[in-house]
Design a protein that fits this description.
GO molecular function: ATP binding; phosphorelay sensor kinase activity
Radius of gyration: 44 Å
Distance between the termini: 35 Å
Largest sheet: 5 strands, mixed
Number of helices: 12
Shape: rod-shaped
Enzyme class: transferase
Strand order of the largest sheet: 6-8-9-11-10
Low-confidence stretches: 419-424
CATH class of one domain: Alpha Beta
Mean pLDDT: 79
Helix content: 55-70%
Structural class: alpha+beta
Main location: membrane
Organism: Roseibium hamelinense
Strand content: 15-25%
Order of helices and strands: HHHHEHEEEHHHEHEEHEEHHEE
Catalytic activity: ATP + protein L-histidine = ADP + protein N-phospho-L-histidine
CATH topology of one domain: Heat Shock Protein 90
Length: 464
């Protein structure tokens, strides 16, 4: 559909075609809005809608014709029997034959016949518009008998009364309604809808079993994307679903193997570099306190800090397990650390504080954001909310902020926006990048916005 829209949008169409295409696009948008978004519901509709359409066609076309045809044939049979009685009465008018005709009609034709004295027929009653019996009998009596008649198909629910005016008498006939129309059509409808219901139930059970492996695969992929452990997942279902599940398992194994190799490499690099830095610090200590050694000591301290930042960024948080953590305690710890550092921090939280996260990673990310904000602003506020299955952590400051066009670059590794921030501040340029990677490892992201305090707002949003 998107390719079709793109194909026509790049061409100027004549008026009728442009009108049709506009209607098509409007209908497509409306259909997309009203259609269910779940795979199970959509697949069920693909099965149910054709069944309903087929049933409707059967009821409208087949049942209407069958009902009308059978009812007309049954009406013809009754009228033929009545015409035979009329013929006998007109050609053999003996009084003693009336009783025999009534007996014959009752026993052989299952009709209740009586001969009444000649009198005016009752006034015509309102004709039921949808009554097939009245229409069929009236048409057949007019064609086959051709005498004045009166029909009552409404008065008695189980019988039809027919009066025909002869030369010297009135023939009154009572027939069962079931003799004049197809009374068993509802059985066909019951069977039709019952079998359709059984098929729909079977389709629902089958679809649920087929879609369950897809749901498990989606849950496993979502959990793995959030950094949570994927327990007891195995490929199952249809062949294509099993292929997708097996591909996910292989992808997870490769990623976990790569993370293990990276962790091992970083552990070796960290050990070797720390050993060298420790040796240098020891040598500076042996040289004594001089202006030159003081500068070299500051350089070593800054190098150690930068090394820790690089290793933290490269290591990530994949080695930490997800566990339920009280964010209120993390906020208190950050507030205490900020107070010790002489940079007051105001915190607040709304909603459930128990959230499944990597505790050390989230604390490191928030610490980076708070430290970064405290470098460039005199007022820092940390707030959090846990609502509608989303955890939002916000750090506001009243510093100079970051221009909107440079915010995307600010979250990249080794990026320092000295034009927007204090150039005297040292750092590795990894604070925002580490916070963003931590947010993304939890299935969320980091957003930089304008702060109500006038500076920068760093907002972490992750699913809870």
């Amino acid at each position: 559909m998107a390719s079709l829209n793109h194909f026509f949008s790049n061409r100027r169409l004549p008026f009728p075609f442009s009108l049709v295409f506009s209607a098509y696009k409007a209908g497509s948008r409306w259909l997309y809005q009203v259609m269910p978004k779940g795979l199970y519901t959509r697949a069920l509709l693909i099965i149910v809608v054709p069944i309903l359409v087929l049933q409707s066609v059967l009821v409208i076309v087949f049942m209407e014709r069958h009902y009308d045809l059978v009812s007309r044939r049954m009406s013809e049979a009754i009228v033929r029997e009545i015409a035979a009685i009329v013929y006998v009465l007109e050609n053999y008018p003996q009084e003693e034959s009336h009783e025999r005709i009534e007996t014959m009609a009752r026993d052989a034709l299952e009709l209740s016949v009586s001969i009444l004295p000649l009198e005016p027929l009752p006034a015509p009653a309102p004709k039921p518009y949808f009554d097939v019996i009245d229409q069929g009998l009236s048409r057949e009596i007019s064609e086959r008998i051709g005498k004045p008649f009166w029909i009552d198909t409404v008065g008695r629910s189980r019988f039809v009364e027919i009066r025909i005016q002869l030369k010297n008498e009135i023939l009154r006939v009572f027939a069962r309604r079931s003799q004049a129309y197809a009374s068993n059509s509802h059985i066909f409808l019951v069977w039709m809808f019952s079998t359709s219901l059984v098929l729909i139930v079977i389709a629902m059970v089958f679809l649920r079993n087929q879609i369950r492996p897809i749901v498990r695969l989606a849950d496993a992929a979502q959990a793995f994307g959030k950094g949570r452990p994927v327990i007891d997942f195995r490929a199952s279902g249809a062949r294509e679903v099993r292929r997708a599940g097996q591909a996910f398992i292989e992808m997870r194994r490769r990623i976990e193997r790569q993370m293990d190799q990276r962790t091992t490499m970083l552990a070796g690099v960290s050990h070797d570099l720390r050993t060298i830095l420790t040796r240098l610090k020891l040598q500076l200590t042996l040289l004594g306190e001089t202006p030159e050694t003081e500068g070299m000591r500051k350089d070593l301290d800054e190098m150690t800090t930068m090394l820790e930042d690089y290793l933290a960024f490269a290591r990530g948080d994949g080695d930490e397990a997800v566990q339920f953590t009280d964010l209120g305690l993390i906020f208190e710890e950050l507030e205490e650390e900020a107070e010790i550092s002489g940079r007051p921090l105001k915190t607040s939280f709304e909603g459930d504080q128990e959230v499944a996260i990597r505790r050390l990673a989230i604390k490191r990310g928030l610490s980076n954001l708070v430290t970064n904000a405290a470098k460039y602003g005199s007022k820092v506020v940390l707030s959090g909310t846990n609502k509608n299955n989303w955890l939002t952590l916000v750090v506001d400051d009243n510093g100079p902020g970051i221009p909107e066009g440079q915010r995307d670059s600010a979250t990249r590794a080794f990026q320092r926006l000295d034009s927007a921030r204090n150039q005297d501040q040292s750092g590795s340029g990894l604070g925002l990048a580490i916070a963003r990677d931590i947010a993304r490892s939890h299935g969320g992201d980091l957003f930089l916005e304008d702060s109500p305090l006038g500076g920068l707002r760093a907002r972490i949003r992750i699913p809870s």
